[in-house]
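DM from R.C. (forwarded with permission)

"hey, sorry to bug you on a friday — could you get me a structure for this? deadline for the figure draft is monday and I only need the backbone to look sensible"
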Amino acid sequence: TTWKMQSLRDHPECARQEYDRILDTHDSGLYADVSFELQAPEIGHKTAPRMAILREQGVNGQIEMASAFDRAGFDAVDVTMSDLVDGRHVLNEFQGFVACGGFSFGDVLGAGEGWAKSILFNTALRDQFEAYLGSDNNLTLGVCNGCQMLAALSDIIPGTDHWPHFVRNRSEQFEARYVMAEVIDSPSLFFSGMAGSRIPIAIAHGEGRAEFKTEAIADAFIASNLTSLRYIANGGAVTEQYPANPNGSRAGITGITNTSGRVTLMMPHPERTTRTVNHSWAPSDWGTLSPWMQLFYNAGKQF
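My reply, with the result:
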């Protein structure tokens, strides 16, 4: 009955794929295969690098994000877009910034795109972001709405040829799940040394499907080695099947980077799963911190 109702409400093929997975007696379930050991950076600087925790109206992921960067040795600073507009802060005060996730603008469709346009259509802000994102000294991370926002700024970010935009999930629904993701070898400084790891992670978004203008552009992007994170089925294979791939992205794409590795975008929420207790399931041999904390440690190693 639930499957029939879901077929009417959601994308019918996605509903069928989820029903088929329930019936699959060979599904191995969640697991973790981690290729590295957690390694905190050696703090050699007297002053902690400053990380701007950037948010827009409605964003709700800034507290977890600040906590993760603080734990990695940063001085996390709450910065709103109005702070930048009014000049209370400028990006050059910080060694990095992270565009946070959550329900920006009430999570209306295209919220991240709207966030990007508030930058692109403001000459002073556009110039500030373009100079910052083009620097070889800064780090930038975008998660969830922040991922969608930064993807829409690709014209002012070097090394982003063939980047996708992130649009409505194929399921036609907001997806809040705990899924398997695989770290891919890429230039991303955030994922340095983590390639090959397969770890469960939280996702919560309505618009996470990577969309390319043409099939040729999609092929070129996949060949460019700029995918940093992708969805996999519980058996380990890259998947486009729902719900293991909750948004229908081609080749499971859910995290990307630019050629310098200094700008990384992803739809899943590593900041919500940095502690083992954050996970609804975790291996018994994990310590207090989960492997996703390494992403923030890697950022700290750059300063």
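R.C.: lifesaver. The mean pLDDT is 95.
me: no worries. The longest helix spans residues 12-23.
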